[in-house]
Amino acid sequence: MKLLNTMSLSVTHSVVVEEEVQFTLVELSRACRADVEQLVELVVEGVLTPSGDAAPRWRFSGATLRRARVALRLAHDLELNAASTALVLDLLDEIEALRSRLRRLGSH
User: Fold this and answer.
1) DSSP labels for the chain?
2) Number of structural domains, the chain?
């Protein structure tokens, strides 16, 4: 009996976005494939920090695109609400800050 080796291939598409790029709320929702309401909830919870004083004038940096995608993926995968997503991201940020500090201390 002959066994066939099969290989699963996953293709990921990515786009490099400069941090200087600015997105409107609608553009960010399209780039994230998310509802505007989901992004507004993340702004209310402090996960995303736009410039501008009201939703129609909000502008988001290119770096915010990555954070929004991470937040939305966490919310979906772990079935989190916006407040829980904010907490998880805060903890992940703290872990990254501690790791960075350890790397700096280790290089001395």
Assistant:
1) -PPPP-------------TT-EE-HHHHHHHHT--HHHHHHHHHTTSS--BSSSGGG-BEEHHHHHHHHHHHHHHHHHT--HHHHHHHHHHHHHHHHHHHHHHHHHT-
2) 1
Q: What pLDDT score does 85 carry? A: 97
Instruction: State yes or no: pLDDT of 87 exceeds 70.
Output: yes
Which residue range(s) make up the domain with 69? Answer: 22-106
Q: What is the value of pTM for the model shown? A: 0.76
Across 60-78, b (16+ Cβ under 10 Å) vs e yields: bbeebbebbeebbebbeee
> 59 φ, ψ to 5°?
-130, 135
Partners of 23 in beta bridges: 60
Distance CA 46, CA 84 (A): 11
Q: What pLDDT score does 107 carry?
A: 75
Here the CATH number for the domain that contains residue 39 is 1.10.1660.10
